[in-house]
Design brief:
The chain is built from 16 helices and 29 strands. Helix 7 runs antiparallel to helix 8 (281-292), helix 7 (256-274) runs parallel beside helix 11 (413-425) and helix 13 (502-519) crosses helix 14. It starts with 7 loop residues before the first strand and ends with a strand.
Length: 676
């Protein structure tokens, strides 16, 4: 049994020569240390000690010319062919006749750049024509040298050889040890061990290499003895003689570790790069989910958690499934999920540690899958799930849940570790987005607190909406207000203070309260009231500006409803009739507030038809960067006309779905008049 060391020249395996019918021996270095002999060569010379210089290993050879010839070939690089030379040593043939061999001697570079010598030899029989035998040995030597030079390029571990058409003629001995399956070259039986998803691409790639005579370098998955898949690399090069391919020699190497490391680096870099320029939490989480699926998992959901007081978790609580993506099929729906029992999801939050579960296909363990996904994992034939906590500012802010299904191998601890590293790589961006969302939620709560609910007025429907900017976490300066005066008329107002910060919010609150106080009991035109507000604004804040619409709606005595209004630098009110005609009320246009102290302001009166809708709104509903304001106004007019007969709440909600910039707050208040 040869030691593995004796079968290698440097990083090159020499075992490919083991079954050769011609003797092969390889010597290395100036002292010609014996590093390899195949079985055929041992039959000629007997067993010899590997690693010893040739003069010691073959001390019983009587011809000094043998050693001189090794020196000559190594120094000159010129190959030598010997025909029927005597081969004398102490072990003579049993019949007493002398032994003769024909041999070829060539220089090679087996290891560390140090020249060596390869001998191919066969013992000459009396009944064999010496000339023919010498030619055969020379041909075999050339073939082995071509194969050897090709192998040097591959640096593999397990060797196989195919014919010029790509059909394997010398199977890879390590294939059975690695897969537990014999190498069946006929009908491509070896493909049974290849991952189903990789079989066709592997065959196609190999056929293309054979057709084009290209060096082949390909990675695919193979099922191993322990029933798991590992990545292997096949490399092959053509052996060319006389300008024609006579065979292919290739290697088979387990590269699972290298493949995993390469994938790990690629996914980490991708996760960090993909989230670098994103601001909103939705964008960051969706991008992370898109990296996880399908590279790492078949399905991924990300749950946003409530802020638990003092780190205590009390059941029940509601987690928001914010993101849900799947490689195939329809993933579980997004939305709130009530958690009312102890399960792995809760354990992940309590312990701040990931959990990995594997189970038979379509039979998830109780409490092991994400909330609301039990039926999905059963239908999709799920086989494993991992849940990883997302920790932001010392608290578990979210949970990432990923799973695999079908024939794909189950998630393993390395996959879970990679998910954790991906989240860590994106932590800065994720943390910023999470803080942004929390700040935005607090700003929105404060804004909604400052904006009152519309009053209940007999015969009138009043609805109001406020939507914060998607790109700002600060409170804005948009406002609306509505109240009933002592005389029974209904006051409507809407406005926008310049700026988008706390100062703008404070000015907005002061202006709104001031306007309510001045308009509550004064029987004067809206323009006069805005003049008073303008004076007060100049005295309180000489640098601030604001836009505003002030209107009061008076019930009819005998005719229609009348609207008295004044506009201060604000988009005009929109009137939509029940019949679907929409027009802007463009009277009483005045400069915005804060541009001049004690400037006279005009008012206008409009008669409103029965069952019509009046809409006051801020510019966030009509402005789009790079677009003329008239385009946005016309879009609002047409959209409102199509919604003329929709319920008032639906009317407002649909208007918020019009194309807008999402970079500014939107406030609106709408009134639906009764029929006659």
């Amino acid at each position: 049994m040869k030691d593995e060391h004796t079968r290698r020249a440097g990083d090159l395996p020499l075992g490919v020569f083991d079954p050769a019918p011609v003797g092969v021996a390889v010597f290395s270095g100036a002292d010609h240390r014996l590093i390899y002999m195949n079985d055929a060569y041992q039959k000629i010379v007997g067993e010899r000690p590997f690693g010893s210089p040739a003069r010691e290993a073959f001390h019983d050879i009587t011809q000094e010319r043998f050693f001189t010839l090794l020196d000559q070939v190594r120094e000159t690089g010129k190959a030598v062919s010997l025909k029927e030379i005597p081969f004398e040593h102490r072990d003579h043939r049993p019949d007493g006749r002398k032994r003769h061999i024909s041999a070829g001697v060539s220089r090679i570079s087996p290891e560390k750049g140090e020249y060596g010598v390869m001998i191919t030899a066969v013992e000459v029989m009396d009944q064999v024509e010496p000339a023919l035998l010498g030619a055969s040995v020379a041909a075999e030597r050339d073939r082995f040298l071509h194969r050897y030079q090709s192998l040097i390029q591959l640096e593999g571990q397990e060797i196989w050889v195919s014919d010029p058409r790509g059909e394997v003629i010398e199977p890879c001995p390590g294939w059975h040890r690695f897969t537990g399956q014999p190498w069946e070259s006929r009908d491509n039986g070896w493909l049974d061990a290849v991952h189903p998803d990789d079989r066709e691409p592997t065959v196609v790639a190999w056929r293309k290499a054979v057709e084009r005579l290209d060096r082949w370098d390909y990675v695919y998955r193979v099922k191993t003895l322990d029933d798991t898949y590992r990545h292997v690399r096949e490399r092959a090069v053509p052996v060319v003689e006389g300008g024609e391919v006579v065979e292919w020699v290739g290697t088979f190497t387990d590269v699972e570790h290298e493949w995993q490391e390469e994938r790990r680096r690629a996914l980490l870099d991708r996760a960090a790069a993909a989230t670098a320029d994103l601001g909103s939490l939705d964008e960051v989480l969706r991008t992370l989910a898109d990296v996880i699926v399908p590279a790492l998992a078949d399905v991924c959901a990300i749950f946003l958690l409530p802020e638990f007081e003092c780190e205590s978790i009390r059941l029940p609580f509601v987690a928001e499934r914010l993101i849900s993506v799947a490689r195939t099929g329809i993933p579980p729906k997004v939305g709130p999920q009530t958690i009312d029992e102890e399960r792995d999801f809760v354990t992940v939050i309590r312990t701040r540690l990931p959990i990995l579960r594997g189970f038979p296909k379509g039979e998830p363990l109780p409490g092991s899958v994400p909330p609301g996904a039990e039926n999905y994992f059963a239908r999709a034939q799920g086989n494993s799930v991992a849940m990883v906590p997302v920790i932001v500012d010392g608290a578990v802010a979210a949970v990432v849940a990923a799973g695999r299904y079908g024939e794909r191998e189950k998630l393993d601890p390395d996959d879970v570790d990679l998910m954790g590293r991906m989240l860590a790589h994106a932590h800065v961006h994720l943390s910023n987005a999470m803080r942004f969302q929390r700040t935005q939620c607090m700003a929105l709560a404060l804004q909604n607190y400052l904006l009152p609910d519309p009053p209940r007025v007999p015969r009138l429907e009043i609805a109001a909406r406020y939507r914060a900017s998607a790109s700002s976490a600060e409170i804005g300066g948009d406002w609306y207000d509505s109240f009933v005066r002592p005389d029974g008329s209904t006051v409507l107002t809407i406005g926008d203070v310049a700026g988008h910060d706390l100062a703008a919010a404070v000015t907005m609150s002061q202006l709104r309260n001031m306007l309510r106080g001045l308009a509550m009991d004064r029987q004067e035109p809206p323009g006069d009231i805005l003049r008073r507000v303008d004076v007060a604004t100049e005295l309180l804040d000489g640098e601030g500006t604001a836009t505003c619409v002030l209107a009061h709606l008076e019930a009819p005595d005998s005719g229609g409803w009348s609207l008295h209004y004044s506009v201060a630098g604000h988009p005009p009110p929109l009137l939509v009739t029940h019949e679907g005609e929409a027009r802007f009320l463009e009277g009483a246009a005045n400069p915005l507030l804060g541009t001049g102290c004690d400037v006279s302001r005009s008012s206008s009166v409009a008669v409103l038809p029965a069952r019509s809708t009046l809409l006051l709104y801020t510019d966030g509903l009509v402005e789009v960067p790079g677009e003329h304001l008239d385009v946005g106004l016309e879009r609002l007019r047409r959209g409102s006309a199509t919604l003329a007969r929709e319920p008032l709440d639906h009317f407002c909600d649909r208007l918020l779905q019009l194309p807008v910039a999402y970079k500014d707050d939107i406030a609106m208040i709408a009134v639906r008049l009764p029929g006659i």
